[in-house]
């Protein structure tokens, strides 16, 4: 039996393969786990350490005949899961299990393993750096104890052998030195300073820089005497040029980004990314005229509480964070947190005390450098200079108004960043006007007035110093705060109060039962509205105290929850359907040219119905909707400018702060941890890998799969071929399970649905879904869901072939048992 490694080396036993992996592939294995490829029965099985992998090989494959390469990474490419590992040798070489192991090779393997071991610990948000030090020390003690005993035993044994030749003596000396390595495996990594230096040597760590903001007089106590001295305020900054260079020089990253940009530029029928919008065409034109390669950057700014938000020290150490990302990376990774980087951290109180210019000065200088000089990338086959232009600055409205120089109060006369409308006019304003829009000319005039009461501008935006940016063109919508928590937050209590308390179509108890017992499915169960926040007293309040995801979930599925109890002619229900229709458009990840006119009309219809139905005036969040049609034309789909994922990035910093007892220079603690997490990703060198990870599995002949005869010829599978059946699989960050509904195609704007009846892997690595097809009977507007029925068609699809990556769920009508599927966005 030959046990093969993907690098081409073969071993005659599991022990030999494990030894080879330990010596030559330690760092890769720690990152990617070990994948058994010896048999189709084991396709996709993961082992997180060599011992488990070896035990599996001995137990399952010692008697096998033949075999496939072992220990390779699983990634996706089109319809197949293919290996993407660099071949170390071109031809297979059969290596005996007793091949010589040299000291240098062994020492490097231990060092690489230790480096990745510590990097993996640092990557865990809940493990403080002090705990990492303890783990390293404990592991060092654990290893040195038995390694010393084993060393003594082996050396004593050799000492009893006489007449050893010189070569054997040299081997014994090497063995003794190897034991010395095992006695102190973390000798080069036993302190954090050493570990960080090793990360620096590996080009994986970008050291944060402390920068001076300003100073203020503060009381200082020395030997019991109180003095007043000038105390400096500092922020933390990471050079974007260095992080971007390391990121883009990772294998395939730059090429995949440029390939994606080229594909987006060639696509004229669908707009799905910022680089297809009008704003990027204007920004990139000067660079392209000079033949330069330019990529856009998104900045995001937000404040978060590093202490207990309800505690006595709330607000004392509130942190302001600035993140950035490249918005034109492949769509599968747009929401991945590891592709969002930290640029700066400072205290929120320092920004209020010293102003935007002082706290953001190093960030502005860095953006100017990237725009003017760019960075030089040393790729495998060429050297490329890449420039970067600031595309958008994102954030919630309060944060953006603060950092861009507008008034930080939404009862001010002119709080809107896009237009100059007065607050009294917007209460019943149904359509934005070109005459009211801010532009460079009237903006400069308003700045010159230096009167925020009349203009809504406190100070000139410091980012206007960049050639590629002007604040009046920073058009972006924040669906989380403006629509989910804003528009839906205001609308839901009004809708439910009318239906339950005034019209009495159902009782409050019946509504709570419907919310509690609704079939959310595994993909929406985490967004289930909290019934404790839906008490009777809440219906008369201005807003529900629900999170954005809970408000959106209730808005999406209210039609299926209680629609059967509401008559179709009910005016409030007609307003709900208008709100639901608007949500479907806003959350679409793509749109066709001209769709902005449809959105403009839908927003006008929604706002008009809100005023007429509830006799209420419009809030600021309703006014922000009026500009959305301009946003999508200028900057692309709104879901890419929403703050949801950046808020998740905030959570990483909060966890680090909560797991640390000290509050001395908490921004330093958070920043170092963020850079150590980035170091782990840079060391992994697989940031754009599309892996699939399977759940519980069973192995069986292909012929017993449901509907085997239907797809066997298409996939060229024989009945006796062994396949691995999975209950669920995670692919590109999305989990698919049995009974999940997927959209496998779109025909004339109507989605085609399929229910996953089985998930299997065959031929070692090919992942497929077996789908039960549905006929779409029509769209039930009252429930806002598609009525469907199973047909006799069976389909087979790889997840990359699906028309939409978001899984859905099949639900049954409350009265007649009809089958319905609700989509999350319009097609």
UniProtKB/TrEMBL annotation:
Superkingdom of the organism of origin: Eukaryota
Name of the featured protein: E3 ubiquitin-protein ligase RNF114
């Amino acid at each position: 039996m030959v046990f093969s490694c993907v690098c081409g080396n073969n071993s005659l036993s599991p022990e030999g393969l494990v030894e080879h992996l330990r010596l030559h592939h330690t760092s890769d294995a720690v990152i990617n786990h070990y994948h058994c490829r010896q048999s189709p029965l084991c396709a996709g099985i993961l082992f997180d350490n060599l011992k488990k992998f070896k035990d599996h090989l001995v137990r399952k494959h010692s008697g096998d005949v033949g075999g496939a390469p072992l220990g390779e990474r699983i990634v996706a490419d089109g319809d197949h899961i293919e290996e993407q590992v660099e071949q170390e040798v071109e031809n297979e070489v059969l290596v005996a299990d007793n091949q010589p192991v040299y000291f240098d090779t062994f020492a490097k393997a231990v060092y690489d393993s230790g480096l990745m071991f510590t990097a993996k610990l640092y990557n865990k948000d809940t493990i403080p750096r002090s705990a990492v030090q303890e783990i390293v020390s404990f592991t060092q003690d654990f290893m040195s104890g038995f390694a010393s005993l084993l060393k003594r035993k082996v050396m004593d044994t050799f000492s009893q052998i006489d007449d050893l030749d010189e070569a054997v003596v040299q081997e014994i000396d090497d063995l003794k030195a190897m034991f010395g390595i095992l006695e102190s495996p973390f000798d080069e990594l036993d302190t954090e300073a050493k570990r960080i230096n090793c990360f620096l040597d590996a080009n994986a760590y970008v050291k944060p820089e402390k920068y001076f903001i300003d100073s203020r007089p503060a009381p200082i106590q020395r030997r019991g005497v109180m003095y007043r001295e000038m105390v400096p305020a500092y922020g933390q900054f990471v050079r974007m040029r260095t992080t971007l260079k390391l990121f883009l020089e990772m294998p395939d990253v730059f090429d995949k980004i440029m390939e994606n940009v080229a594909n987006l530029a060639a696509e004229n029928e669908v707009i799905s990314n910022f680089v297809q919008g009008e704003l990027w065409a204007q920004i990139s034109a000067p660079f392209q005229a000079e033949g330069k390669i330019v990529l856009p950057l998104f900045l995001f700014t937000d404040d978060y509480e590093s202490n207990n938000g309800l505690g006595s020290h709330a607000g004392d150490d509130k942190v302001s964070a600035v993140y950035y990302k490249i918005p034109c990376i492949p769509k599968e990774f747009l929401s991945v947190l590891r592709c969002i980087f930290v640029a700066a951290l400072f205290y929120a109180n320092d920004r209020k005390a010293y102003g935007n210019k002082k706290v953001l000065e190093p960030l502005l200088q860095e953006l100017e450098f990237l725009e003017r000089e760019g960075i030089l990338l040393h790729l495998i086959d060429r050297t490329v200079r890449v420039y970067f232009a600031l595309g958008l600055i994102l954030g919630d409205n309060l944060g953006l108004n603060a950092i861009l120089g507008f008034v930080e109060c939404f009862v001010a006369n002119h709080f809107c960043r896009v237009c100059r409308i007065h607050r009294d006019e917007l209460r019943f304003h149904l359509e934005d006007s070109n005459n009211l829009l801010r532009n460079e000319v009237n903006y400069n005039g308003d700045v010159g007035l230096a009167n925020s009461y009349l203009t809504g501008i406190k100070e000139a935006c410091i980012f206007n110093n960049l050639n590629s940016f002007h604040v009046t063109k920073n058009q972006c919508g924040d669906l989380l705060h403006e629509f989910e928590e804003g528009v839906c937050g205001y609308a839901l209590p009004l809708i439910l109060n009318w239906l339950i308390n005034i019209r009495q179509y159902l009782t409050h108890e019946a509504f709570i039962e419907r919310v509690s017992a609704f079939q959310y499915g595994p993909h929406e169960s985490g967004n289930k509205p909290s019934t404790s926040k839906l008490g009777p007293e809440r219906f008369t309040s201005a807003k529900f105290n629900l999170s954005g995801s809970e408000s959106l979930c209730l808005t999406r599925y209210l039609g299926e929850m209680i629609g059967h109890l509401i008559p179709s002619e009910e005016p409030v229900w007609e307003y709900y359907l208008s709100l639901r229709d608007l949500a479907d458009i806003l959350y679409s990840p793509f749109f066709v040219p001209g769709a902005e006119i449809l959105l403009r009309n839908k927003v006008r219809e929604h706002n008009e119905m809100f005023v007429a139905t509830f006799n209420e005036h419009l809030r600021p969040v309703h006014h922000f909707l009026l500009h959305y049609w301009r946003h999508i034309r200028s900057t692309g789909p709104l879901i890419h400018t929403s703050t949801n994922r950046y808020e998740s990035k905030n959570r990483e910093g909060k966890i680090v702060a909560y797991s640390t007892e000290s509050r001395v220079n908490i921004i330093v603690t958070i920043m170092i941890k963020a850079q150590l997490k980035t170091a782990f990703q840079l060391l992994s060198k697989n940031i754009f890998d599309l892996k699939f990870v399977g759940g519980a599995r069973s192995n069986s002949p292909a012929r017993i799969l449901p509907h085997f005869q239907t797809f066997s010829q298409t996939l060229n599978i024989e009945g006796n071929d062994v396949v691995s059946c999975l209950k669920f699989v995670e692919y590109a960050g999305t989990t698919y399970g049995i009974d999940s509904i997927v959209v496998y195609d779109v025909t004339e704007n109507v989605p085609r649905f399929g229910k996953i009846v089985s998930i299997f892997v065959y031929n070692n690595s090919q992942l497929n879904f077996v789908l039960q097809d549905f006929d779409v009977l029509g769209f039930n507007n009252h429930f806002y869901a598609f009525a469907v029925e199973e047909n006799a068609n069976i389909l087979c699809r790889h997840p990359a072939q699906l028309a939409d990556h978001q899984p859905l769920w099949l639900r049954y009508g409350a009265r007649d048992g009809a089958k319905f599927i609700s989509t999350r966005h319009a097609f």
